[in-house]
Amino acid sequence: MFAPDAPAGLPAVHETGPTIDNARQSMLYRTTIYRATHHRTGSTIMTAPSLSAQVFHILLALADGPAHGYAIMQSVEHETDGAIRLGPGTLYGAIRRLRADGLIEETADDAGEVRRCYRLTRRGRGVMKREARRLERLVESARARHLLPARGT
After folding, report:
1. Contact call for residues 41 and 67 (beta carbons, < 8 A)
2. Where in the chain is the domain with CATH 1.10.10.10?
3. Segment 24-65, tens digit of pLDDT
4. Closest CA to 134 of 39, 46, 38, 6
5. pTM of the full structure
6. Which residues of 113-139 are buried (b: 16+ CB within 10 A; e: fewer)?
7. Is CATH 2.30.30.40 what the domain over 53-125 is classified as, yes or no?
């Protein structure tokens, strides 16, 4: 089996490890560990952990442009049909971590209001695209095993 984010052409070992239970990791990242081993040198290459559903939806809410916190909460709730409801503490804790990791940045509000607005950085968009591709591969695997209907059905 190949690790989803392993560099092309490198054989990989897929391992699932224990979830890291600290405040920073538990919200921002799900910590399934993927390890790729270089076929010539034998060195181990660690790939980035996948994003939590909450964080992916926060980034998704910012994909179309800057938004303030309340708009992000509304977007996440709408996109998930109410399955994910972010409270202010959860949202702003995630925003603080996402800013510290360089995935989003604060920006001025277009309407000239006092609210803080946030937008994706180039790095944040790249992380979000990588996660979307990872999720797409999971869905394709589920379809191949007849767990989901084929496309267009």
Report:
1. no
2. 53-125
3. 444 455 443 444 555 566 665 545 568 899 999 999 999 999
4. 6
5. 0.68
6. eeeebbebbeebbebbebbeebeeeee
7. no
Residues 6 or more apart whose Cβ sits within 8 Å of residue 35:
3, 12, 13, 14, 15, 44, 45, 46, 47
Q: For residue 75, what are the CA distances in angstroms to 2, 3, 53, 105?
A: 34, 32, 13, 18
Query: Residue 39's Cα: distance from chain center in Å?
Result: 29
Task: Report the run of H or E that residue 90 belongs to, with start and end.
Answer: helix 88-100
Would you state the structure tokens that stand for residue 109, as one six-digit string? 């509000």
What crossing angle do the helices spanning 69-79 and 88-100 adopt, rounded to 10°?
110
**Percent above pLDDT 90 for the chain:** 58
Q: How many residues does the chain have?
A: 153
The token duo for 14 is 């897929």
